[in-house]
Design brief:
The structure holds 2 protein chains of 2 kinds. Chain A has one domain: MetI-like (MetI-like fold), CATH 1.10.3720. In chain A, strands 1-2 form a two-stranded antiparallel ribbon. Chain A is 76% helix and 3% strand. In chain A, helix 4 crosses helix 10, helix 8 packs across helix 10 and helix 12 packs antiparallel against helix 13. By secondary structure, chain A is mainly alpha-helical. Chain A contains 13 helices and 2 strands. The longest helix of chain A has 34 residues. Chain B is mainly α. Chain B is globular. In chain B, 44% of the residues are buried. Classes of the chains: A mainly alpha, B mainly alpha.
Chain lengths: 302, 276
């Protein structure tokens, strides 16, 4: 609150002081270098769009235009099943991650002891410092048929053989939940910390049992954080490639994997179509989440 | 009269402990496995051995990858810090036409999947005959692009929190625009630079999904070499390398800790909720 207050005041004053004296070219010169980098990026995306309308016959890209590749993708049951599997993975991972992240952020926001909370922060956020390859490798070691988890599981009386936890959907989902957990905790933590501490006391004084206070008061107040977390986790899950390839062992097919496989086969037009489909999935998710946050905001105003 | 859960409720605390264990587990198993004397990475470990650490140090692709990743990380950090801080300065301290459009443009690389960025850059590097494919320059450019949204946001909130009153004072005392920036603005942006540099370097050092489209065998970055290795085999050699990398990350955290504890850093982290 105060930070943004200072920021707007600072900005207003800066404009006032620089008005008249500043030559209008200066800010544009400052934006130029980063603008060139972004321009390269935009050009690359447009090139992708162009390639998706090119014909492809054995490595050679033909000069004419065609909608054949798009038609091939969009009318194929196989490709739609992969799109669906990608979205399904996104939904499952987002759901599970939120269920874990919410109570975690809750407890983290309550810890008053400074040393303890610092340690918890480091433990929860340090995996971000370690490569996704390392974390996926760790899960391969843990979940493999001769790994620690199965070693313990087979001791249970009703488990007779190791349970297949890698090279399938389950393994990919577990590893992705782990990798994306910090991204969900962060936005949740920031809304939970803004929650006035007397809200719960007020609900309790009015006779609400804890679960009702949570359901009717606390959850609605923290919903913007939930939407932000869901959006980040979903978009990162559907575009995740390394973890799906390593933990999926080639058996979990998602759009990101198709992109890489087709580029390796030098089928650029198909790879371009798949990249754009993947981009479309993340853009739809972004649109839905911004709709949701606006609805929450308007619901509050009313 | 008791406030509900002033202290976290016991079952919740247990959930919290389980989550902490879940977070640490895959890293802990990697460290343990790096000392496993068996090549098959089974549980429980067959015996204690430091043999794999010697293997890592002698394995050419990892040594080369480490060198490449350090160079690319340093280059991408430098490039993104320079262009990002310039852009943030323009966006915060000046009135720019189309401000909101420009800002959303800076967020674009964040919304595009890394794999798509990789393929798009690969195709433009090839199509323009720019000789950037498979070179360090190409990788540096790609990584700078990926971290640019984060770096710019860090600097924007950093500058937004700096009261321009000092800059005005310096101007009133007759300092030129460059002099003001160099000796008044820049020193105040120190925290922003440290946080942005850490963030940019770590992101670049660990980047794989874009890099893998842009490398040739002689420019394989460390994550790319590790990925190819892991696709082939699972000997504890990779665990030893991972342990070394975890150790480096721990050192980095310990070095940055005093700065982070001084406070104010959390406002600079770009993944805040609801602000986007």
């Amino acid at each position: 609150m105060t930070a943004s207050g200072v920021a707007t005041r600072a900005r207003r004053r800066a404009r006032w002081s620089l008005r008249g004296r500043a030559r209008p070219v200066v800010p544009y010169l400052l934006l130029l270098p980063s603008g060139l980098v972004l321009l390269l990026f935009l050009a690359a995306l447009i090139l992708l769009l162009i390639y998706s309308f090119k014909d492809y016959t054995s490595i050679v890209i033909e000069p004419g235009w065609t909608i054949g590749t798009w038609k091939h993708f969009l009318t194929s049951r196989f490709y739609w099943s992969i799109v669906w599997e990608t979205v399904e993975l996104g939904l499952v991972v987002t759901g599970v991650t939120l269920l874990i992240a919410y109570p975690t952020a809750w407890v983290l926001a309550q810890i008053r002891n400074r040393a303890l909370s610092t340690i918890c922060y480091i433990v929860l956020f340090s995996p971000l410092l370690v490569s996704v390859v390392v974390r996926s490798y760790g899960w391969l070691l843990l979940l493999g048929n001769r790994g620690l988890v199965n070693d313990e599981l087979v001791r249970l009386p009703w488990v007779h053989a190791p349970i297949q936890l890698v090279f399938n959907f389950t393994g990919v989902a577990i590893a992705l939940v782990h990798i994306l957990l910090p991204f969900a905790i962060f936005p949740l933590l920031s809304v939970l910390r803004q929650l006035p501490p007397n809200v719960r006391e007020a609900a309790a004084d009015l006779g609400a049992p804890p679960w009702l206070a949570f359901w009717r008061v606390i959850l609605p107040l923290t919903l913007p954080g939930v939407v932000a977390a869901a959006q980040i986790v979903f978009t990162l899950t559907v575009s995740a490639w390394v973890t799906t390839v390593l933990l999926g062992g080639g058996r979990v097919l998602v759009v990101a994997k198709l992109v890489y496989d087709n580029i390796s086969n030098l089928n650029w037009p198909l790879g371009a179509v798949e990249s754009l489909i993947l981009l479309a999935i993340t853009l739809v998710a972004l649109a839905i989440s911004s709709r949701l946050s606006r609805a929450i905001y308007l619901g509050r105003e009313a | 009269m008791e406030g509900i859960g002033r202290r976290p409720w016991l079952p919740l605390s247990l959930v919290f402990l389980v989550v902490l264990a879940f977070t640490i587990a895959p890293l802990a198993i990697v460290v343990i496995n790096s000392f496993n004397s068996s090549a098959y990475s089974e549980w429980p470990p067959a015996g204690f051995s430091t043999h794999w650490y010697l293997t890592v140090l002698g394995y050419q692709p990892f040594r080369q990858g480490f060198e490449i990743s350090c160079l690319v990380g340093a280059g991408a950090t430098l490039l993104s810090l320079i262009v990002g801080s310039m852009a943030a300065f323009a966006l915060v301290r000046y009135r720019v036409r189309g401000q909101s459009l420009i800002r959303s443009l800076y967020f674009l690389p964040l919304t595009v999947p890394r794999v798509a960025i990789g393929f798009a850059l690969f195709s433009i590097f090839i199509a323009t005959h720019s000789q950037l494919y498979g070179t360090l320059q190409g990788l540096i450019l790609a990584h700078a692009l990926i971290v640019l949204p984060f770096v710019t946001t860090i600097f924007v909130s950093n500058l937004g929190n700096i009261d321009p009153v000092f800059e005005e004072a310096a101007q009133d005392l007759g300092a030129g625009r460059l002099r003001v920036f160099w000796s008044v603005t820049l020193p105040q942006m120190r925290t922003g630079f440290v946080v942005a540099a850490l963030f940019a370097f770590i992101t670049s050092f660990d980047e794989l999904e874009t890099s893998i489209f842009l490398v040739r065998p002689q420019t394989n970055t460390l994550p790319v070499s590790m990925f190819f290795y892991l696709e082939q085999q699972q000997t504890p050699t990779l665990a030893a390398l991972s342990t070394i990398l975890i150790g480096l990350a721990v050192v980095l955290v310990l070095l940055a800790l005093p700065l982070l504890l001084r406070g104010g850093w959390s406002q600079l982290i770009p993944i805040g909720g609801g602000r986007r």
